[in-house]
Amino acid sequence: MEENCTHNCSSCGSDCSSKAGEEKSLLAPSNSYSQVKNVIAVVSGKGGVGKSLVTALMASKMNKAGYQTAVLDADITGPSIPKVFGVDHSRAEPSEMGLMPVLTKSATRIMSVNLLLESSSTPVVWRGPVIAGVVKQFWSDVCWGDVDYMFVDMPPGTGDVPLTVFQSLPIKGILIVTSPQELVGMIVEKAVRMAKMMDVPVLGIVENMSYFVCDECDTKHKIYGESHIEEIAKKHGIESVAKIPIEPSIARHCDKGAVEKLESPWLDDMAKDIISRFG
């Protein structure tokens, strides 16, 4: 194996032992009762920027548009998807077809480690390879059924789990979630470059906590500083950009497990772009 190996044999010109197998051999087999058309990963270079929020809102938006949707929660050590969808007290049940995902009120299919634990507060203290293996099992062992759009809520960074997802799942593209701080620009660069290394297109960038609109003066206040999202997107040729404001109703809906009831007009154009691209 070359010293600077990206683990993406399709874009590599080296003739090393790791290239003996085809790229497709890295893909984990899907469940025989599953037909997932489009898998989109939602990534961030750092934690706390709203990646799970964007995952949940995009899945809900596609669901409202009439598509069969699913969320694979790959953030094994920090799962929050069941909570925001209001299914954190549910448990995934085994069947002859495989592990059955939990359905939300709007029939979005959810799989998360919190749906397998006795308590949602039980910590997951596992090493990287074990965590990566669980993510692959969520793809291979879960009976997802017919799904038009699956959104994968990724852990932050560019470590074991993101690499496993890029290699093992048929990712069509990624959405990058960030915040306005200038420092985040460097972190976004890492996510964009990893996507390029893995030959996965960046479908869009979402800037969360972008601004706050005052109720009294109706003025936009840049709480976390000026946005740099447009220049970052332009630099990397990413056309789809969205900005989510600091909005108290967002937190209220998520805390109540009612994210599906939250209107998210900020992501309308991005959803349309994805639908026009994949159908």
Task: Describe the structure in your own words.
The chain has 279 residues and is an alpha/beta fold. It has a single domain (34-278), classed as 3-Layer(aba) Sandwich (Rossmann fold). The protein has helices at residues 51-64, 81-85, 128-140, 160-168, 182-197, 229-235, 248-255, 268-278, and strands at 35-43, 69-73, 93-95, 98-100, 102-103, 109-111, 146-153, 171-178, 202-207, 212-213, 220-221, 241-243. The termini are far apart. The mean pLDDT is 88.
Secondary structure layout plus pairing:
Blueprint: E1 35-43, H1 51-64, E2 69-73, H2 81-85, E3 93-95, E4 98-100, E5 102-103, E6 109-111, H3 128-140, E7 146-153, H4 160-168, E8 171-178, H5 182-197, E9 202-207, E10 212-213, E11 220-221, H6 229-235, E12 241-243, H7 248-255, H8 268-278
Parallel strand pairs: 1-7, 1-8, 2-6, 2-7, 8-9, 9-12
Antiparallel strand pairs: 3-4, 5-6, 10-11
Corresponding CATH superfamily = P-loop containing nucleotide triphosphate hydrolases
- Compute the number of strand runs: 12
Over all CA atoms, what is the radius of gyration? 19 Å
- How many separate helices? 8
CATH hierarchy class name: Alpha Beta
Ends: how far apart?
A: 38 Å
Structural category: alpha/beta
Multimeric state: single chain
Strand content: 15-25%
The biggest beta sheet is recorded as:
8 strands, mixed
CATH topology: Rossmann fold
Task: Supply the CATH architecture.
Answer: 3-Layer(aba) Sandwich
The count of domains is 1
Largest sheet: spatial strand order: 5-6-2-7-1-8-9-12
Order of helices and strands: EHEHEEEEHEHEHEEEHEHH
Mean pLDDT: 88
Low-confidence runs: none
Which bin fits the share of residues in helices? 25-40%
